[in-house]
User: Fold this.
Amino acid sequence: MKIGLEVHVALPTKTKLFCSDSTAETKEPNSQICPICVGFPGSRPVLNKEAVRVAKSIAIALNCSVKDKISFIRKVYFYPDLPKSFQITQLSESIGSEGSIELEKKKIRIRRIQIEEDPAQIIREGGYTLLDFNRSGTPLVEIVTEPDITTEEELRETVFTLRTILHYQGVDVNQEIKTDLNISLAEDRVEIKNVTGIKNLIAAAQYEIARQGAIIEKGGVPEKETRSFDAASGTTKASRKKESEEEYGFIYEPDLTVYDTKNLAENAMRIPTKIARDLAVKHNANYKTILELIAFDTGALNLISTFEDEFSFNTIIASLEIMKRFGEPSNSNVFKEILNLTDQKIDITREVLKKIKSGDKVEIKKFSESQIDETIRKMLNSDATIVEKYKKNKNVVNFIIGTISKKYGIQPREAAVRVESVINKL
Amino acid sequence: MKSYIAEFDTKEKPKDYYNKLLENLKEKNRELNAFNNFNDSLHGGFPFSVKDNICVKGVESTASSKILKTYKPPFNATVVERLQKNNFGFLGKTNMDEFGFGSFGINCEAPAHNPFNSDYVAGGSSSGAAIATAILKYHVAVAESTGGSISSPAAFCGVVGFTPTYGVVSRNGLIDYANSLDKIGFMARSAIDVRKVLNMSTGRDTKDTTSLDVRLTDEPKIQFSVINQLMNGLDGKIRSAFDKFLEKLKGMDYKVNYVDLKEIEAAIPAYYVISAAEASTNLARYTGFKYGFKVNDFSKKYNDFFTEARKQFGAEAKRRIILGTFVRSASVKNRYYIRALKVRAMLNEKMRRILRESFIVSPTMPITTPKIADIEKLSPVQNYALDILTIPPNLCGLPHISFPYDYIGGMPIGAQVIGEHFNDYAVISFVENWERKFKYKFRYNIGAL
Assistant:
């Protein structure tokens, strides 16, 4: 099996790719438009340098070679969401080429990364096709991989790895990522166009693997074709037989000059997979645990860096997991306190967290007192004679003291005090 | 050499000057089809007309195409803005071949007529701009050339037509024909007025990425080169008039030499391939629902919907869409589109070599002014072949100027001088010298308004 992806991601810029309209979310349709992004005659594109800068950063983060001189082309086709009936995109002189997504045990090669404009949004309503041009002209990068993905597991890991790397480049990875999926169990390539979101991507792949598998099992050969994914039924449907390649009549975009990318300062190159691997080696810790904590949380990584010298790595990781469990944002100033408590092997409950956050001094012993007492009581109850024996020989509760001390991470002397107080109250 | 702009500035215009002007012009326009619309609220400034493929805010701008009927751009072209800032008053939109597709001003709903004799063509595609310049005393025209659309009508209408170096005047607001070839330029009754409006219009414009911030030079040349291959196809009368012109140049202490440029024959096919390829993508946006002609039957499938709209294109527009779509299609792209780009680069190099030491000079058009009826009989290829003299400088983005130098049978004829990139003022200076020496005057037998 071979799977290749064409992933489209919106870039985190304030304005559109070729005009100065805002890219911010808005509810009012066609409120962030101008002659350029609606394609009015007489208007022409002016390149957004920030979009190129971010795209360059992404290309570097994905191990691509970056072209010093990039140019744009027109991809011509007729569709109502395409205001000029051509999309300004890139081909041979695209921002990045020949890169890779590094999985734990494998590299998925990247053929090309190109900058392009998003079409308008089509809304089908009451038998009409409505168009919202707010999205038209949003800067995208399309990341085209080689068909190197060979299992569903690799597909998941590829998408996960790509998303975490993009997150570290400032991309909103919770956006509805649009993907074209090439998948072939046999010779000929089946393309599933325009799959929206990660869940659907996996579902489309699963369905297609099963569908093509069934054909092959029956002795057939899956045909070369383009299919579309229906999220409601979770199935793919044939949309066009691919007897010939699509004809887009590419020409150079004559309104944009060759653009020099050399002087664009790329983002800081923080590659989460690399960082997790380095940390795992340095601290003899689990790579996956670290990666999962920092993958979509740059704050967590910042906390690690801040406290790496002050606390043991296990304490930091445990504390981060506590933060995650309680949904605490990782920029929270409670982290230091959690670290302190965790370092003392104190169990952190929701109640404790509440106290930390409200700024109350946490009396470490108090919080677990009733819990400890309850445990002691239970242990005492399991032997009806023990209290009597205790009156004669205090050593008979040593095993309880030991257990409590270990369990709650408190000094044996303190445990002895607790046991004594429980017995006295009986 | 006379500046009508300077003369106008010193004159007090009576209140109803503009009203009278518009009234007379409208009357004249019924016969000549020079204007697509008029600015009835014009009440000040030196009048300038704008070719209909250049946007004027709130004014119908159709590029003389039915598919753009009712399109009123919400913005001004940069060149319009710059002239208005210099106290020029917008007069109206001038007629043209649809989207610039033509050399004779007849590929449109209302074919343009030559002001010297209305049986004859006015040239094109900036037909209206040239007619307006010929019939109006105080006026400059903002025109546009892709492959000769300024030179051709300027020559046939006996006015000065200047096409700047590519990128010198912002194209922002131009309804595109072929973006890598389109240049906004000017027509006037004298070279000095061209100089004045060029000076106001140049300079970098952030709204057009290809616009340049370059200081234009005015370096004179003594030498004039005549390209032998371009002389072969000349009409006999044109040839002898041009030979006399060359003698006059020698009399002005200029030197004339003849050079070979065999490859120049590739200019026409290269031009038509590149321009059609780009035009076919530019025209793809006309699908009948956002502006201009609207298809109101929303029950149609999208393919049928936009096909319905695109029936509004004229025959020449359809021809170029088909031609352009073909030459950029995957199977033949290398043979046509890519090859044409190489030809352009090669010709550019060869032309520049000649232009280092000299201007290039030729007649503007290889034929005397044709009758409208005669042009209608030509096949497209015969038609395209008549652009042989104007295409080379346009293909290479070189500054060039056409100016009237003689008359044949009462109709003006023009010569064209090409200069080096960015030496735009030099070709204008040359025509100023020419006008000074020969005290060239417009023949007002056609009557100036």
